[in-house]
Design brief:
Helices cover 22% and strands 40% of the residues. The chain has 399 residues and is α+β, with helices and mostly antiparallel strands. It has two domains: 292 residues, no CATH class; 97 residues, no CATH class.
């Protein structure tokens, strides 16, 4: 665990498109180093699949040139840096930060299957044993997970029990080598599990854009169990959804024809709900006899829901709304930098314009930003942390 002296938060980003791994690591690390006045306290490295076969050499080069005190990284199906998104070409990104006054602790986590689920291994006492209410000031966690060997929901559930107010952000690695994961933690290359860093004493603002827009009225679940919604506002869920769709405007009905999602309010203690208050989940099954629907999340009777639609226009609107709120949150001093975890279903798969998410963040925050296209994104909604899809989640560091 390292404690950093006080001063000003700085973030710098370096990127390279070189096919040569050592050259790419050197270029990216040198560019990140050039933007920092002081030492690098925390670094993230995101590397496309072409570079993963030489992960040890990559890691050595970054350490030699940047000398980070703490480092995390993973294989990426696409990288993001400097307002650009590289999806189908080699990319290596180094994000470096000087975080004065911060306490940083990296870890490698694994999961062992048991009869009733999984047991997490490697979770340090600083995260596992703190009683509720004993959370350090400005504490947060950033995690990078292997989607094949590690269940991120187990980590989120464990942290919900021990540290319910701590935001967790990150993503699932989206590129592998020789059939396995490639995760980086400090000076080690890990081939399974997850790597994470606990931060305290430094402000981190979470930002989550789920890429969907609400349509129709809010409704209450009047019958439901587990992940099945039996009734909405006193009628079978399927019937109520059909009535809502019939009442939509023609443009909204056209969007709904491509599929609707369900938005669940997580924090009910609000006088009214904005789009960011809904956890968006797909409808994964229908019982036509009873009219019940199944969704990708457990529900409870009395919970408020609203239908959601997703397309490029709604995703763009949702991201820009989230970024406007974030720009207001950082205030006149602005952001020192940000980390972006965006779904590999976004980018050119969703938007007609190139570099959509990266450019939107550049426009809104104007701060050094890096990240990668994920196989799943982690971020909080309504004060709780979730694993998402088709989402852009961001960790923003105020200046």
């Amino acid at each position: 665990m390292a404690v950093v002296e006080r001063g000003t938060v700085q973030v710098s980003v370096g990127a390279s498109e070189s096919f040569d791994t050592v050259e790419a690591a050197a270029e990216a690390a040198d560019r990140a180093r050039a933007g920092l006045d002081g030492r690098c306290d925390l670094a993230f490295v995101f590397a496309s699949g072409q570079h993963l076969g030489m992960a040890k050499w990559l890691l050595s080069e970054v350490h030699e040139r940047l000398e980070p005190r703490n480092l995390l990284g993973c294989g990426a199906g696409g990288t993001v840096a400097g307002g650009r998104e590289l999806e189908d070409t080699p990319g290596l990104v180094v994000w470096g930060a000087s975080l004065p006054g911060a306490e940083l602790e990296t870890m490698h986590l694994t999961a062992e299957r048991e009869a009733e689920g999984f047991r997490l291994l490697g979770l340090p006492p600083s995260l596992a044993d703190s009683p509720e209410g004993q959370v350090a000031h400005d504490e947060s966690v950033i995690a990078l997970c292997d989607p094949f060997s590690f269940p991120p929901e187990e980590l989120l559930a464990a942290l919900e029990r021990s540290r319910p107010q701590v935001p967790v952000l990150g993503g699932l690695a989206s590129a592998s080598f020789a059939g396995g994961a490639m995760l980086l933690q400090d000076g080690e290359v890990c081939t399974d599990g997850a790597v994470a860093v606990r931060l305290s004493g430094v402000e981190l603002l979470p930002c989550v854009s789920q890429g969907a827009g609400p349509v129709g009225p809010e409704m209450t679940i009047t019958s439901g169990e587990a992940n099945m919604i039996g009734e909405l506002a006193g009628k079978p869920a399927l019937q109520r959804i059909s009535e809502v769709i019939d009442s939509l405007s023609e443009p909204e009905r056209q969007l709904a024809a491509s599929g609707v999602l369900i938005g669940l309010v997580i924090d009910e203690n609000r006088p009214e709900y904005d789009r960011g208050d809904f956890l968006v989940r797909p409808i994964i099954g229908v019982n036509r006899d009873s009219g019940a629907i199944g969704i990708g999340e457990d529900v409870r009777v009395g919970q408020t829901v609203r239908l959601q639609v997703r397309d490029a226009a709604s995703a763009d609107e949702d991201l820009r709304a989230a970024l406007r709120a974030q720009a207001q949150a950082v205030g006149s001093e602005g952001a020192a930098g940000a980390l972006l975890f965006t779904c590999n279903g976004r980018g050119s798969h969703m938007f007609e314009v190139p570099d959509h998410d990266a450019a939107a963040i550049e426009d809104a925050l104007g701060a050094p930003t890096a990240g990668f296209f994920c196989a799943g994104e982690i971020g909080p909604v309504g004060g709780r942390n979730f694993l998402h899809g088709f989402t852009a989640t961001m960790a923003v560091f105020p200046a």
